[in-house]
Amino acid sequence: MTISEHHKRLLDRHTSRRRILKTGAALGIAPMLPVGAATTRAQEQITIDYWNWWDVYRVELMDGIIAQFQIDNPGIVVNNVPQTWDRRDEVVTTALSGGEPPEVIMASRQEIVRFADAGAVAPISKYVEADAIDLTRYYDSEIASMWWKDQIYSLPMPTAGGETGLTFYSKDQFTAAGLDPETPPTTWAELDTAAAALTKRTEDGAIDVMGASLDFSAGGYLANLYVNAGTLYSEDLRTVAFNSEQGVQTLQWMLDFAENHYGGYQNMLDFDLQFTEGQQPLLMGPVAHQYQNVSMFFHIEQNDPGFNYGVGYRPYNSDNPNAKFQGVAGLTFGWGYIIPSGLDPAVEEAAWKFVKRITYEDVGACSFMQSQLRPSPLQDCNSSTVFSESNPHWDKVLGALESDVPVGIVPPQSQVFSVLTEYLELAAFGEVDAQGAIDEAAAESQAMLDEYWGTQA
């Protein structure tokens, strides 16, 4: 179903309590009480607790947006409650199942679908329709992951796009290796040539400089699968689709790349041990060409503003006539904002007003992204000259966002990714071949999908 069809079919309807109990129990999430059973908050002033992970300097930015929102909505008070990253997923799930969750929660795209399916969060379809929200302002790939079963549950902010499609590389290292610093690799074959020139290994075979980053997680594999004309699921999300010729071919290419340039997966793991969480290997020198999302511009500005770098697109398999460059939005992360089920109607409406401010209205959504020089899922926000004047690579960012396609998300997504990652690593360690790894991962993943869809009326 297209985005426009979804927009036409917005309905003001609620999931039945019976299905909430059924799916909520299956996912280990206790459903909220229905609206009729909620405690009425007959207060002139409504207070909203807003949980988010906009930490460090972004606290001040968000506080400014909240201050203006409260001026514009004098009956609503918003408490900005930044959270720590420790056990983030567990904290969010516990909050929604504990009976007294915050009124607005920042959630990942996968969480939004899972909580929506469990009945733990309220659909916002009636508000989107009543306020004439123009969903075409968003990139199609961004708004697609906000839906579940013909209801919309959140609005995106910031982008989940630009996540897999961009590559950052050291121009100085390209020059030293005899490569054109203005021409990054665009195909798998060109990447192979570049990695051969850029990679440096010690006498005992250890990696000294990794020519191009390679990721054997589910996310890393799927990012390469999509530039080889493959997909994760069928269009209706009921059938695994990565067990295709393209799927096996993609994994075999990754295995060959790891062996030919780095001496195998174990060498790659040993190489990674030198870095701690949050460090940027590209800026430090040991990696010459790195896949990174749009946050990399911020990291460069904060850590090494003089770094001489270029930006390109993820190389695709030019041997496949159907393959082309495309990124995948929402593959591993990306944010939205959810409202728990069972709130007093007046509180729910107030929560929606705040969600709209930080995801749709220029004074909140656009300004927050522009202050970080980070792209927005709202297309028109990105036309501001503040971006093009401050980022010489802004055309690449826009190109990546415009080419992104949405990844299908199902409630058992995290389990599917865990299984896929397990078999990818088994293949990387040489314990199973590419065909076997993909076949086994697909069989187990399909069983999960069948079990889930079998519970749906």
What are the defining features of this structure?
457 residues; alpha/beta; four-stranded mixed β-sheet; three-stranded antiparallel β-sheet; 45% helix; globular
Describe what you observe in this structure.
With 457 residues, this protein is an alpha/beta fold. The chain has helices at residues 3-8, 17-27, 58-72, 88-97, 109-118, 125-130, 140-143, 171-176, 188-198, 218-226, 245-262, 265-272, 281-284, 296-303, 345-359, 362-371, 385-390, 394-403, 413-428, 434-454; strands at residues 46-52, 76-82, 104-108, 147-148, 151-152, 166-170, 200-201, 207-209, 289-291, 309-313, 328-329, 335-338, 405-406. The protein has a 4-stranded mixed beta sheet with strand order 2-1-3-12. α3 (58-72) packs antiparallel against α16.
Strand order of the largest sheet: 2-1-3-12
Low-confidence region ranges: 1-42
- Percent range of helical residues: 40-55%
Shape descriptor reads globular
Strand pairing plus helix content: what structural class? alpha/beta
Overall average pLDDT:
90
Q: Can you count the beta strands?
A: 13
Instruction: Bin the strand percentage.
Output: 5-15%
Main sheet, how many strands, which sense, barrel?
A: 4 strands, mixed
Q: Which radius of gyration do the C-alpha atoms yield? A: 23 Å
Number of helical segments? 20
Rounded to the nearest angstrom, the distance between the terminal CA atoms is: 20 Å
